[in-house]
Amino acid sequence: MDKPIGVFDSGIGGLTVVKEVIKLLPDEDIMYFGDTARVPYGIKSRETIIKFSLENTLFLLQKDVKMIVVACNTSSSLALPVIRKHFKIPLIGVIMPGAKEAVYATKNKKIGVIGTRATINSGAYEEEIKRLDSSIKVLSQACPMFVPLVEEGWSNDDITMKIAEKYLTSMKKAGVDTLILGCTHYPLLKQKIQVIMGKGVKLIDSAQQVAVEVKQVLTQEGLLRREKGRPTREYFVSDEVAIFQKIAKRFLGADLKEVRKVSNV
Amino acid sequence: MDKPIGVFDSGIGGLTVVKEVIKLLPDEDIMYFGDTARVPYGIKSRETIIKFSLENTLFLLQKDVKMIVVACNTSSSLALPVIRKHFKIPLIGVIMPGAKEAVYATKNKKIGVIGTRATINSGAYEEEIKRLDSSIKVLSQACPMFVPLVEEGWSNDDITMKIAEKYLTSMKKAGVDTLILGCTHYPLLKQKIQVIMGKGVKLIDSAQQVAVEVKQVLTQEGLLRREKGRPTREYFVSDEVAIFQKIAKRFLGADLKEVRKVSNV
Question: How far is the C-alpha of A73 from the C-alpha of A119, rounded, in Å?
Fold first, then answer.
């Protein structure tokens, strides 16, 4: 019997990845877990992020998924190497695809990275970029206010513009021509960020590239779904379903029905 | 043997309460727990807030405290009634003391309340105020951006002024003469809030009044510390100690040394 693709995130942001996977692989079954009871991860320590990420991995493994996509940038930065060390299941994070795309896109070899404090402090993007091309200069900036702004529904507010300016001005001045949106919430601020950075700067949202990698790995491993019929989509969260559904709409632009609350610990 | 006063909070904000308790009761032993691995509570559901708060209560009970102060407004609003139902230990929350002080302070019988989304949605302050004086009009406003602003260290930034204006203007226009700062982070924004609300508006930070209640209950129950010698102060957190210490300095204005990481679940 075919098994679903497992996807986890610290909360809701991973839905941007789910959206792209569904677009590229519409026949695949998907099982999503959002750790909404313990969200956010990005302000927490390496040790705690690893602990939570391992618990989420175990949750999905017990649901018998065929692959796990770590859709959270913070988890991918800090926990993916540990998960990879311990588990046999095929794993895809969001750092490598994003870094690859940025390296491909940059012309002046100056790449900017924005993300949560934990992601930026980990240096994961920088390391991945340097591994691909050591001559590239990487500038990083943590933007801790961006997630609360998106969740408050202020993506189009003037205040968001002011905060984005505060975070991004020095990066703009440094002349990066490519900027990695290293957090699944940030694509919702794309418009504002583009205005500040200028039209010439390419914004990288790794979700699409992640979907490409998912397809590649499933193909290589002979794991693409064989059954016919409508694929299943199941969403699990650790906090209340209604809160998740309300914000999910902002990410997917559509209502999400099949959501269940579970305990992942 | 004398036992410590237990205090818990979703994270770091409860230190404002600890500060006032120490000021009023300098000889008391104190044991603090901050659930920094699962912070914040204010964006989560009633069920999850109750679950976490019961776990924190059990943690402190196992440490053999003589009383528990629920220093978190969100926990006090939603979980205190449940904790009180199940446990025998003397309990003090932050809602009743704040409400009492506000009712005492108001002259025009219009009180404003600001807090996290969970606190405001619970209606706990309004209920408590109406119980004391049903003729008082209560206006409430959730301010979800205030906690991230304080934790980002932007308390004195212009952006904070803009955000505070956005949240508070309608309350100012409605003419409240008393405003309850219904979240332990908000006293750090007192200056800005006072400028927006105007000098005539009394801001209520319940920490002092909570300390008064703690003293009263300990006296009534014959639980004041009898031993001589320097009191102990122990701080426990569920995430990394260093992150807590860094932000704690903003709340206490001093370094916090005796902090240990523990698991509360």
Answer: 7
Pick from B33, B7, B4: which is nearest to B20 by CA? B7
Instruction: Taking residues A98-107, report their average pLDDT.
Output: 98
- Inter-chain touch B243–A45, beta carbons under 8 Å: yes
H helices, E strands: number in chain B: 12, 10
pLDDT digits (tens, 9 = 90+) for A171-191: 999 999 999 999 999 999 999
Mean pLDDT of A210-222: 97
Distance of CA B176 to the CA centre of its chain: 22
- pLDDT surpassing 70 at residue A265: no
Q: Does B265 touch chain A (CB under 8 A)?
A: yes
> Mind listing the pLDDT tens digit for each residue in B180-237?
999 999 999 999 999 999 999 999 998 999 999 999 999 999 999 999 899 999 999 9
Q: Under an 8 A CB cutoff, do A145 and B148 touch?
A: yes
Distance of residue A167 Cα from the nearest chain B Cα, in angstroms? 12
Fold of A5-93+208-261: Rossmann fold (3.40.50)
Pick from B38, B158, B240: CB nearest A38? B38
What is chain A's alpha carbon radius of gyration, rounded to the nearest angstrom? Answer: 18
Question: Which segments of chain B belong to CATH 3.40.50.1860?
Answer: 5-93+208-261, 95-205
Q: What is the pLDDT of residue B147?
A: 94
Q: What's chain A's average pLDDT?
A: 96
Lowest mean pLDDT among A107-111, A228-232, B74-78: A228-232
Q: B84-91 long-range contacts, Cβ below 8 Å, gap at least 24?
A: B86/B54, B87/B57, B87/B61, B89/B61, B89/B65, B90/B66, B90/B217, B90/B221, B90/B223, B91/B67
What pTM was estimated for this model as a whole? 0.95
Which of the residues B36, B48, B155, B167 would you substitute to probe the A interface, choosing the one with the greatest number of A C-beta atoms within 10 Å?
A: B48
Q: pLDDT value at position A5?
A: 98
- The nearest CA of chain A is from the CA of B40 a distance in Å of 8
- Nearest-neighbour CA in chain A from B98: distance (Å): 26
Say whether A240 and B44 touch across the interface (CB within 8 A).
Answer: yes
Which helix (H) or strand (E) segment holds residue B77: the answer is helix B73-78
| Nearest CA-CA partner of A41 in A66, A92, A76 | A76
The CATH number of A95-205, from 3.30.70.2190, 3.40.50.2300, 3.40.50.1860, 1.10.260.40, is 3.40.50.1860
**Whole-number average pLDDT of chain B:** 96
Residue A51 has pLDDT above 70, yes or no: yes
- From CA B139, how far away is CA B71, in angstroms rounded? 23
